[in-house]
Amino acid sequence: MNVFISYCRENQKEVSNLVEILIRNKVDVWWDKNLTIGKEWGKVIEKEIKSDDYFLLVLSQELLQKEESYVWEELKIAAQHLSTKNGSWLLPVLLSDCKVPDREIGSKILSDFHAIPVYGDFGKKGIDEVLRAILPKFTIRPEMVSIPPTIADNTKDTQHSFLIGKYLVTQEEWKRVMGNNPSHHTGNPNRPVESISWIAIQDFLKKLNQNLDGPKYRLPTEAEWVHACSAGEMRRYYFFDNPQRLEAHAWFAHNSGNTTKPVGMKQPNSWDLYDMLGNVCEWIGDSFKTRQARTANHSGYEAAFRGGSYDGGDFYCSSEFRGSETTMFRYANLGFRLAQDLDS
User: What residues contact 126, with CB distance under 8 A and at least 6 apart?
Assistant: First the structure.
C-alpha cells in the first residue's frame, strides 16, 4: 500500500503524526521529506503520484488562503492520472473546519470527492477514518476500551487489565474482513453481525490478525465479559440493579420490534460500553462447562454466550445470564464483540 501526501508547510507537524502512524500500519508513505537534493522536483513528484495507490490531499484554512501553492501544482499533476485510477484514489482530508473548494480537477470538481473530516491534530478518531479509507478490505479498526483489573464473576478469578470492544462487531466490519454478510437482519451495515457460529468467528479472527503487530484480537473470556458488563460493580444490572431502567440500556423483546438495531443507540454502561445487554447475545471464548478457553478445533463442544438479545425477555438481559450452544451453531440473535490483551 503506497500513499502520496500533499500538504502545506504550515501543517507539517500534524501531517508528521499521520505519517508516523501510517508507517506503523505498514503503509509506504511519500511526502516532501522524501525529496532528494538535486533531483528535479516535477519529474519525481509525477512519478510518485502516478505509481501510488492513494493521493491524500490535506486541506486546511492555511492552504485555502493561498492562491498559489505547490499543493495546487501537485493536484494538477494528480488530475492527469485520475482517469486511470479508482474512484477513491484521490482522498481529500479536512484538517480544519473548512469547505472543500470547487477547484476543477480535469473533468471533475474537487468538492465532488468524498472528504474525511479529521479536525485538529489527526487524533485517534481522525486517524481511524483515514486508515479505514485506505487500508485493505480485510482491515478494520474497532474502537477498544481499556478495562481496569479486579475480581470478576463467581469464579473469583483476578482479572488483569485488558481491552474490549466499545461496540458489538457490525455487519460492515464483518464484510470488510470476510467479504460476505451472513446476517438475517440486514438493511443497515451498522447493525451487529449475527447468524455466525463460534467456529466462523475463529476464521474471522485469523484473517483480522494476519497482518497485525502486537496483541491479537480474540473473544473475551467469560470472566472478562462479566467484569466489563457490570463495570466492576458485580451487580445483576450495571445500572444499580433497577430493572425498570433496562429499556434505556438494552434492546430486548419489550422494545426491539423483534429485530436487531444499529449498535450504540442505547445508553452505555459507566465504562462506555454499548449493547452489553440486549440486541444480540455475545459468543464468549470459554467452554460453557469448564469456563476455560478453547481452541478453534473444538467443533463438537459447547461454547458460552452472554448478554441477552432483541427477542428475549428482561430475565436474559443481565450480567448473570449464561447460555451455551455447540460451536457450529448459528442463529439470528447471536453475535460477538472483540477483546485484546494490553501491550506488556
Answer: 116, 117, 118, 119, 120
- Counting beta carbons within 10 angstroms of the beta carbon of residue 73, is it exposed (0 to 12), middle (13 to 18) or buried (19 or more)? middle
Whole-structure pTM value: 0.63
Inform me whether the pLDDT recorded for 235 exceeds 70: no
Yes or no: domain 144-341 corresponds to CATH 3.90.1580.10 = yes
Q: What pairing do the DSSP bridges indicate for beta strands 162-165 and 157-159?
A: unpaired
Spatial distance between the Cα atoms of 336 and 303, rounded to a whole number of angstroms: 12
The separation between CA 13 and the C-alpha centre of its own chain, rounded to angstroms, equals 26
Contact by Cβ (8 Å): 239, 249: yes
Instruction: State percent of the chain over pLDDT 70.
Output: 84
Rounded Cα distance between 257 and 310, Å, is: 8
CATH superfamily entry for domain 2-134: Toll/interleukin-1 receptor homology (TIR) domain (3.40.50.10140)
